[in-house]
Structure to design on (62 residues):
């Protein structure tokens, strides 16, 4: 039987980001981060106010 992790790696990626970063002058809002979201999976982004959730989404969406 295949584990969920193995099954996820076999699915094509619907979103893949590598080395995302965003700085505003000397302030780093988003440190380099990478992730892959496979087709058919649902993920959420949670964090406190000012944690960089919107900055992350804006970096992914351009």
């Amino acid at each position: 039987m295949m584990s969920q992790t193995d099954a996820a790696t076999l699915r094509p990626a619907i979103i893949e980001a590598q080395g995302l970063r965003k700085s505003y002058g000397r302030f780093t809002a988003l440190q380099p981060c990478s992730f892959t979201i496979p087709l058919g999976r649902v993920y959420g982004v949670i964090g406190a106010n000012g944690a960089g959730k919107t900055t992350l989404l804006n970096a992914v969406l351009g």
Q: What stands out?
A: The beta strands are 13-24, 27-38. Residues 45 and 54 are 9 Å apart (CA to CA). Residues 4-61 form one domain.
